């Protein structure tokens, strides 16, 4: 009996890290955007995450109050840096060290950081060349402090020149060199690439050409046949076109984490209604929970962060202000079953 107990214990001890990794990786994340002058306090917001069983969150910058509330919460966190800090993070190693000293180290033992996101949608753009040097400086500062958190950056699907059919996905010429170097870094560090994936913008930009049911996961069958792979929703097609581009850039093993995806409930553009937003988000959540993966990687569902928790009134007028699942008073714009 004693040896049985020991064996049992040993098995449990071996499995424990595995299970805690699974627990950490499971579930849908939600972006916690703060561009509103009427939003609830971080402690009310984090309580709302907990009450809805939302297990992951993305912060766009190191908000000390939110990070304090996240201590011991078990919520997985993607931590971003201000885009404005990129030049200094890239050119001044001691600025990167003090950023890590102030924004990460004080929380490293109590907040479950998943990734540090250096730069949001800076490629293509004037600041694109700062991204990799800034990632390297932050990574070095973390390593020097003995903290192991993968460092990455977030791009939109604008980095693709070709995205149709998905197997032809390729980075455009103007970003190809920058991204190939970043992909090399991510490969070597086994870090994922964060990608903001918006079927909504594809639909709203060309509603005559892009089928709404394909964008909303309601087609009920294959819409795009790509060689042997059949696509019934645009989300999978967009993720796989990035997967194909990564492979072309020598990063076939680099994982895609969907750092943003969402659908506005108002604001004037084609498709921006509460019902369409609810359909998109709830079907997406079901898709992620089914762990179906994409046609290119069946069974390997990407980690996904919905955009966003709240409608944000300081964003540009129109659909941009209406991506929230909640109004600032914490009532639901539409219900999401997590
Ligand atoms: C959260 O998860 C717990 C445990 O799985 C469950 O009992 C509870 O009903 C869930 N709450 C919500 C709001 O989904
Ligand atoms: C580099 O960053 C450090 C730490 O923030 C700062 O004290 C120093 O002035 C910066 N150097 C330059 C040249 O900006
Ligand atoms: C960062 O923190 C370490 C450890 O406390 C300290 O030695 C170092 O001077 C700090 N560096 C900066 C640039 O703040
Ligand atoms: C979804 O968007 C389309 C296109 O704008 C619109 O015609 C339709 O009424 C919307 N559907 C719902 C259920 O809101």
From TrEMBL:
One Gene Ontology BP term is: carbohydrate metabolic process
Q: Which GO terms describe its molecular function?
A: glucan endo-1,3-beta-D-glucosidase activity
Stored Pfam families: Glyco_hydro_17
Query: Which family does the entry's similarity section mention?
Result: Belongs to the glycosyl hydrolase 17 family.
Q: Which UniProt keywords apply?
A: Glycosidase, Hydrolase, Signal
Q: What is this protein called?
A: Glucan endo-1,3-beta-D-glucosidase
Q: Span of the secretion signal?
A: 1-25
User: Which InterPro entries does the UniProt entry name for this protein?
Assistant: GH, Glyco_hydro_17, Glyco_hydro_17_plant
Gene3D superfamilies, per the entry? Glycosidases
The protein's superkingdom reads: Eukaryota
List membrane-spanning regions. Answer: none
């Amino acid at each position: 009996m004693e040896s049985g107990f020991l064996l049992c214990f040993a098995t449990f001890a071996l499995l424990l890290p595995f299970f805690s990794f699974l627990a950490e990786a499971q579930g849908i994340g939600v972006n916690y955007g703060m561009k509103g002058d009427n939003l609830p306090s971080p402690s009310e917001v984090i309580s709302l995450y907990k009450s809805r069983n939302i297990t992951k969150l993305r912060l766009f910058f190191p908000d000390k109050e939110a990070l304090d509330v996240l201590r011991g919460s078990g919520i997985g966190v993607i931590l971003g840096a201000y885009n404005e800090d990129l030049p200094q993070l890239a050119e001044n190693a001691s600025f990167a060290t003090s950023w890590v000293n102030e924004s990460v180290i004080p929380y490293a033992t109590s907040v479950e950081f998943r990734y540090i996101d250096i730069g949001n949608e800076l490629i293509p753009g004037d600041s694109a060349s700062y991204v990799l040097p800034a990632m390297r400086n932050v990574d070095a500062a973390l390593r020097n402090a003995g903290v192991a958190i993968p460092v990455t950056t977030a791009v939109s699907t604008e980095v693709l020149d070709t995205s149709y059919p998905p197997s032809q996905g390729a980075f455009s010429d103007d970003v190809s060199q920058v991204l190939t170097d970043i992909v090399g870094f991510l490969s070597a560090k086994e870090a994922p690439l964060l990608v903001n994936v918006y079927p909504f913008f594809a639909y709203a930009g060309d509603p005559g050409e892009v089928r709404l049911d394909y964008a909303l996961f309601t087609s009920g069958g294959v819409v795009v046949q790509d060689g042997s792979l059949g696509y019934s929703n645009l989300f999978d097609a967009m993720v796989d076109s990035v997967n194909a581009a990564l492979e072309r850039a020598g990063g076939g093993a680099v994982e895609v984490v969907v750092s943003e995806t969402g659908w506005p409930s108002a604001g004037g553009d084609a498709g921006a209604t509460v019902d369409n937003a609810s359909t998109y988000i709830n079907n997406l959540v079901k898709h992620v929970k089914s762990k179906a993966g994409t046609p290119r990687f069946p069974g390997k569902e990407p980690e996904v962060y919905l955009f966003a928790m709240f409608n944000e009134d300081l964003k540009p007028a129109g659909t941009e202000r209406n991506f929230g699942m909640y109004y600032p008073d914490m009532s639901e714009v539409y219900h999401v079953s997590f």
